Amino acid sequence: MTDYAVTDSKAISLYFQSLQGTEGMRVIDLGCFLKRIGALSRRVLDLSIPEDTYMVGVDAPGAPDLLIYRVIYDEIRDDLPEERFNLGFFLYPEGVYAKEDRERMLSWCRAHCDPVITWPGGPA
Questions:
Q1: Mean pLDDT, to the nearest integer, of 66-86?
Q2: What top-level class would CATH report for the domain 9-119?
Q3: 8 A C-beta contact, residue 4 and residue 35
């Protein structure tokens, strides 16, 4: 069974700090990082995701689906959309996606996101 949990405080901080100043932007989160850290809101400590930042999550295969995530994300998809995004995240994909899926998703990110933030590993 895949362990979807992410507890790396540096990655969590990077995620939320990167979203500061994204008001009115479209952001995509490949692998639904907020689900994987167990977030219950768009806020962690003193950092929050702006309310008008449109958050699209692409669900990791087999990830649990709780109703709270339909509130945190504006949209959760199972596929990669064709539209462009102001910012993309692909954090901790190893252990969740097969190598060929990771490569396909990173290629998609390069074509659809400006910029992409990726952190390839998982917790040690």
A1: 92
A2: alpha beta
A3: yes
* pLDDT number for residue 45: 79
pLDDT digits (tens, 9 = 90+) for 23-71: 999 999 999 988 888 888 999 878 899 999 999 999 887 777 788 888 9
Number of alpha carbons in the 13 Å side-chain half-sphere of residue 11: 21
Contact 122, 91 (CB under 8 A): no
Task: Tell which residue, 88, 91, 90, has the closest CA to residue 123.
Answer: 91
Q: Around Cβ 55, how many Cβ atoms within 10 Å?
A: 22
- d(CA 18, CA 100) in angstroms, rounded, equals 27
CB neighbourhood size of 10 (10 A): 8
Give the max Cα distance, the chain. 37
Rounded CA-CA distance 73/80 in Å is 15
Q: Where are the domains of the chain?
A: 9-119
Q: pTM for the whole thing?
A: 0.87
Residue 96 CB contacts under 8 Å (≥ 6 apart), including other chains: 2, 4, 31, 60, 61
More confident: 83 or 37: 83
